[in-house]
């Protein structure tokens, strides 16, 4: 009876796998059995006496995404900038969902003041039922029909592009180049149609010189188009249509990619239909209403030298889903709670039972931060609020550890927050089991959920597990029966991973208000300027006055450097602007740039201006207020009282000594007819270094005149020391 059970189980499993890739031996066995051969004879006829000892029956496993981390995948922002660079061999790309698709200049010609140019947007046809065109991140408002290649296309009707821009868009069904482009450019031919590709042709007039740099800050202009893109096939209804459904987009990338497209025979289409239903489920949001569970929006660029499944990882990450390979066919497991389909109460002794309680600490995280693409910030990267696993920090010894989750194809922070929880929770489940299962588990495949209840002493390992891999194998027992082996690896799972309460778990995010119509690269902050001791350069005994400027870096991600200039007021008018220098993005520290104007003239007024140099050109100038250049404060000592001697009835000699301070450069002598230094007048300012004696005669006096004298040190920057005691004499 046991033998018959084994035969029935084997045949049942085989019958449900008729056309798997790399499964021809299995279909041969089924055919022989249908002709009346015993199972043992079937194995022998197919594999020979030796090969029939053990036959693999189409194992299955979850594809690991670990290799993706080693690829150094560029960020979506970096990739967009790369795609906007002119190229005669543009990268193959698929634009999915609704997003900003960068245009790669693939052909251009200049005639007079007019640029004729063609941009590649999508390497396949697109829906584009709605769209917005941007040049250098500024929206172009169009009038006309850009899809009519026989007419003038769409013309810009608002500043700064009005009268300077005409556009034609090919969705992929175009058969010719726009007639006006062909007639005027003398470069494009009517056969330059880019059939089957989504492209945009433009006629761009440079315009007058005084507005040219403002209208066209970059050459050629950086183009992006916001719209609904690729048309994807839905196996549930057999229709090809525009969709943002994450599972349908993964399926489309597998079926239509240029690297290794999968035929439907090698795909488990029913799993993709199931995953598409999951992705379309309505999920409540905190503000009220619902959004689809998993949407996917972005541009997928295909690269040589990497496995296709690895390149599709950003699409899978948008739904926390995983690919599985079962008997040579590829399927998908969506991120959704699933009930167990089998209960494992015992294991066979064909291999040692391995039970793992703790995973390596390097793979455990206490919190997760998802980086997503924010439409409200011109499709730049933004961080969703951090998800902290309750109790994880205490369980791991009090030290937090963050997982950074890149979600380049997610454009909604609410979806990103849910995915961050799934990633963090999924990684915290550590138990694993490796064992050989009994034949009653034959229906399990990779991705299946099974309940484990092995009894004592294995109670701690009871619970739900996901099958990571299972490799059924059949061997001859005798001429009438076989033995069936099911070596499998299981990983702990829980429905709680996918629970989500928007009211309590969704965190608020302040949406950006940058808008998509900013005027090219943004200017830096207004420079703040100071002078005096904080700005002066001191090197040993040498002190150099300077004007220090500080300004905030530009908010534009395309900023590459900053130009800084200064000008000086000569007492009558401002002089011309002069260059301080150019500061690269490497000079930015804590979001600011600091520099100096040197040398400066103490007492003169100065202004500083700065502007951003970016990929899309240069910004306007940010101009500082005026600052008066000053030297650093310096504390000088008080000199001794001068020696005063009456030489005659008309002459008094004054002798003084400079203080012993290398910073002292002058000695000032004051005089008065009364003993009051406050009302005294400055008589002389004599150059005198440290400890230098100075002697001067006060002549032209009358007999019987009494005079008082004081001395005071001064440095080269005008700082003065204390006033000495008085020295006095009376002429005879």
In a nutshell, what does this entry contain?
By secondary structure, this protein is α+β, with helices and mostly antiparallel strands.
Write the layout of secondary structure elements.
Layout: H1 2-15, H2 24-34, H3 39-51, E1 55-56, E2 60-62, H4 66-69, H5 76-83, E3 93-96, E4 98-102, E5 104-111, E6 114-122, E7 131-135, E8 138-140, E9 142-144, E10 154-156, E11 165-170, H6 179-185, E12 198-205, H7 209-215, E13 223-228, E14 231-234, E15 239-242, H8 246-256, H9 269-280, E16 282-284, E17 290-292, E18 298-301, H10 308-311, H11 313-317, E19 322-326, E20 329-333, E21 342-344, E22 347-348, E23 354-356, E24 367-374, E25 380-383, E26 387-388, H12 392-395, E27 402-407, H13 413-428, E28 432-437, E29 449-452, E30 463-470, E31 473-478, E32 481-492, H14 502-505, E33 528-530, E34 537-539, E35 542-544, E36 547-552, E37 559-569, E38 578-584, E39 592-597, E40 605-614, E41 617-618, E42 622-623, E43 627-628, E44 643-646, E45 652-657, E46 664-672, E47 681-687, E48 693-698, E49 706-715, E50 727-730
Helix pairs in contact: 2-3, 8-9
What can you tell me about this protein's structure?
The chain has 732 residues and is of the alpha+beta class. Among the domains are: 2-63 and 431-497, no CATH class; 98-229, no CATH class; 528-628, Immunoglobulin-like (Sandwich); 643-730, Immunoglobulin-like (Sandwich), CATH 2.60.40. Strands 1, 2, 19, 20, 21, 22, 23, 28, 29, 30, 31 and 32 form a twelve-stranded mixed beta sheet that branches. It has a six-stranded antiparallel beta sheet with strand order 5-6-12-11-10-9, covered by helices on one side. Strands 37, 38, 40, 41, 42 and 43 form a six-stranded antiparallel beta sheet that branches. It starts with a helix and ends with a strand. The model is unreliable at 1-52, 66-71 and 514-518 (pLDDT under 50). InterPro entries: FN3_sf (IPR036116), J_dom (IPR032876). Keywords: Signal. This is Tip attachment protein J domain-containing protein.
């Amino acid at each position: 009876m046991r033998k018959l059970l084994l035969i029935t189980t084997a045949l049942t499993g085989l019958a449900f796998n008729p056309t798997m890739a790399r499964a021809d031996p299995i279909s041969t066995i089924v055919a022989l059995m249908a002709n009346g051969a015993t199972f043992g004879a079937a194995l022998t006829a197919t594999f020979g006496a030796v090969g029939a000892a053990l036959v693999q029956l189409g194992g299955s496993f979850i594809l690991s995404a670990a290799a993706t981390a080693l690829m150094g995948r560029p960020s979506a922002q970096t990739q967009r900038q790369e795609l906007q660079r002119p190229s005669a061999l543009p990268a193959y790309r698929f634009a999915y969902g609704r997003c900003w698709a960068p245009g790669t200049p693939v052909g251009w010609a200049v005639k007079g003041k007019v640029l004729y140019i063609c941009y590649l947007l999508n390497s396949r046809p697109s829906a584009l039922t709605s769209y917005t065109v941007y040049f250098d991140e500024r929206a172009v408002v169009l009038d006309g029909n850009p899809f009519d290649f026989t007419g003038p296309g769409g013309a810009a009707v608002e500043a700064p592009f009005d009268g300077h821009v005409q556009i034609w868009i090919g969705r992929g069904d175009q058969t010719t180049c726009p007639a006006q482009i062909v007639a005027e450019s003398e470069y494009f031919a009517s056969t330059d149609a880019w059939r089957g590709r989504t492209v945009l042709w433009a006629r761009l007039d440079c315009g007058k010189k005084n507005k040219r740099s403002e209208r066209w800050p970059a050459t050629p202009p950086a183009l992006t188009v916001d719209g609904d893109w690729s048309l994807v096939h839905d196996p549930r209804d057999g229709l090809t249509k525009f969709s943002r459904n994450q599972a349908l987009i993964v399926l489309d990338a597998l079926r239509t990619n240029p690297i290794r497209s999968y035929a439907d025979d090698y795909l488990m289409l029913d799993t993709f239909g199931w995953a598409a239903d999951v992705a379309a489920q309505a999920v409540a949001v905190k503000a009220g209403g619902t959004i689809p569970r998993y949407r996917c929006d972005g541009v997928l660029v295909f690269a040589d030298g990497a496995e296709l499944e690895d390149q599709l990882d950003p699409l899978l990450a948008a739904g926390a889903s995983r690919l599985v390979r079962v008997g040579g066919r590829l399927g998908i497991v969506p991120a959704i709670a699933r009930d167990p389909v089998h209960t494992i109460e015992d294991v066979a002794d064909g291999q040692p039972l391995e039970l793992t309680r703790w995973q390596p600490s390097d793979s455990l995280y206490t919190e997760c931060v998802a980086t997503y693409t924010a439409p409200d910030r011109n499709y730049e990267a933004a961080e969703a609020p951090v998800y902290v696993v309750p109790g994880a920090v205490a369980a791991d010894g009090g030290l937090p550890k963050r997982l950074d989750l890149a979600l380049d194809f997610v454009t909604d922070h609410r979806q990103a927050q849910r995915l961050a929880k799934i990633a963090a929770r999924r990684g915290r489940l550590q138990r694993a089991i490796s064992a050989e299962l009994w034949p009653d588990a034959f229906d399990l495949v990779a991705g299946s959920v099974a309940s484990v209840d092995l009894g004592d002493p294995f109670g701690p390992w009871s619970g739900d597990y996901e099958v990571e891999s299972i490799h059924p194998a059949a061997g001859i027992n005798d001429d009438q029966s076989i033995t069936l082996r099911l070596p499998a690896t299981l990983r702990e799972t829980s429905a709680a991973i996918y629970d989500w309460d928007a009211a309590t778990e969704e965190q608020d995010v302040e949406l950006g208000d940058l808008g998509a119509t900013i005027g090219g690269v943004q200017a830096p902050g207004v420079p703040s300027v100071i002078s005096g001791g904080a700005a002066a350069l001191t090197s040993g005994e040498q002190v150099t006055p300077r004007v220090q400027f500080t300004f905030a870096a530009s908010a534009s991600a395309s900023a590459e450097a900053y130009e800084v200039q200064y000008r000086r007021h000569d007492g009558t008018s401002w002089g011309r602007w002069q260059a301080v220098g150019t500061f690269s993005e490497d000079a930015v520290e804590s979001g600011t740039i600091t520099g100096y104007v040197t040398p400066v003239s103490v007492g003169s007024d100065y202004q500083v201006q700065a502007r951003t140099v970016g990929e899309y050109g240069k910004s306007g100038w940010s101009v500082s207020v005026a600052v008066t250049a000053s030297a650093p404060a310096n504390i000088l000592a008080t000199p001794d009282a001068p020696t005063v001697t009456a030489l005659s009835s008309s002459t008094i000699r004054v002798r003084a000594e400079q203080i012993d301070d290398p910073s002292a450069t002058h000695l000032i002598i004051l005089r008065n007819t009364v003993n009051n230094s406050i009302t005294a007048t400055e008589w002389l300012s004599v150059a005198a270094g440290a400890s230098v004696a100075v002697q001067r005669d006060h002549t032209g006096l009358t007999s019987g005149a009494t005079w008082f004298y004081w001395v005071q040190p001064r440095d080269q920057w005008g700082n003065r020391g204390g006033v000495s005691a008085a020295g006095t004499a009376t002429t005879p």
